[in-house]
Amino acid sequence: MNIIFFGSSSFSVPSLKSISPYVSLVITKKGKPKGRGYTLDDNEVKKAAIALELPIMEIESFKDEAAIELQRLKPELFVVVSFGLIFPKWVLDLPAVGSINVHPSLLPKHRGPSPMQWAILNGDEITGITIMKMVEKMDAGNIIYQEHARIDHDANMITLSKKLSERSAKILPEIIDYINEKGLVEGTEQKIEEATYTPIIKKEMGKINWDKKAIEIVRQIKAFALWPTAYTTLDNVLLKIFDGEINAVNRKEMPGMILGKNKEGILVSTVDGSILIKEIQLENRKKMNAYEFANGYKGLIGKILQ
């Protein structure tokens, strides 16, 4: 079967590797210029495709001339895993068998581009993996496979993404074999009345409001651990926070006040308790253990994070 794989993030890589023997072409989003030299960084999917010696096509949108070339390739199946572009109908109509998408959620809950981040932000205990037939409307196609997965108490976006991407990679080959043998099944319609939607994550959503409850701030830190990272300011300098948890001792002062330190990190007050910050990075400094940072920052205790 002539399969074309679409993917653009590290979440896509395990799936690409697991079905690489079936893949005739990898399509990924073109990199954006970075740094003073405006160099183009290869994304993880492109790096994996090169290592697998698979042909690659990079596009910015389906209006690119390269994308239009898809029409002459006569694909049989599109497999889409975290690609990052909406598929127009003329593209979905190209493969003879159809198009399937791997979505790290229990659809119809958390439709949209950021299901894992929103599952953590919402405090969900259960998420999952859904494989669906693609239709024009985003994440609204019939479900051909779905399974549940627990969100561990200490999970953040990095660990949850790794867990679900690796599980997706184990599921996909069996799905491909089934489709190759029996065709693409009709699947189960989603219940539109149960659908929820996840907005795209923006950089400013990482800013911490210390007037929020401790549990909400901890979820924010965990949900944005990969990007954009939760952040605040210390003495008017940007301070990124990569890891934190609810502090067992329910002590509170002015929200944002640094209450103290221990060998696990630094304690910060919120509106209803305190959190333990474990890993941080002050602007233009290296990422480091919060306790070590506190030992080297004079007069830290009592300062107010804003």
Biggest sheet layout: 7 strands, mixed
Number of helices: 8
Give the N-terminus to C-terminus distance in angstroms.
56 Å
Radius of gyration: 22 Å
Count of β-strands:
15
Strand percent estimate: 25-35%
Physical arrangement of strands within the biggest beta sheet? 5-2-1-6-7-8-9
Structural class: alpha/beta
- Morphology: elongated
Mean pLDDT level: 93
Poorly predicted runs: none
Helix content: 10-25%
**Pattern of helices and strands:** EHEEEHEHEHEHEEHHEEEEEEH
What attributes characterize this protein structure?
306 residues, alpha/beta, 7-stranded mixed beta sheet, 6-stranded antiparallel beta sheet, 8 helices, elongated
Structure description:
It is a single chain. The chain has 306 residues and is α/β, with parallel strands linked by helices. Helices cover 23% and strands 27% of the residues. It is built from eight helices and 15 strands. The strands form three sheets. It has a seven-stranded mixed beta sheet. Strands 10, 11, 12, 13, 14 and 15 form a six-stranded antiparallel beta sheet that branches. Strands 3-4 form a two-stranded antiparallel ribbon. The protein has helices at 13-18, 44-51, 65-68, 89-92, 115-121, 157-182, 214-223, 290-295; strands spanning 3-6, 23-29, 33-34, 39-40, 56-59, 77-81, 98-103, 126-133, 143-150, 230-234, 237-246, 258-262, 265-269, 274-282, 288-289. The protein starts with a strand and ends in an 11-residue tail after the last helix. Helix 5 (115-121) packs antiparallel against helix 7 (214-223).
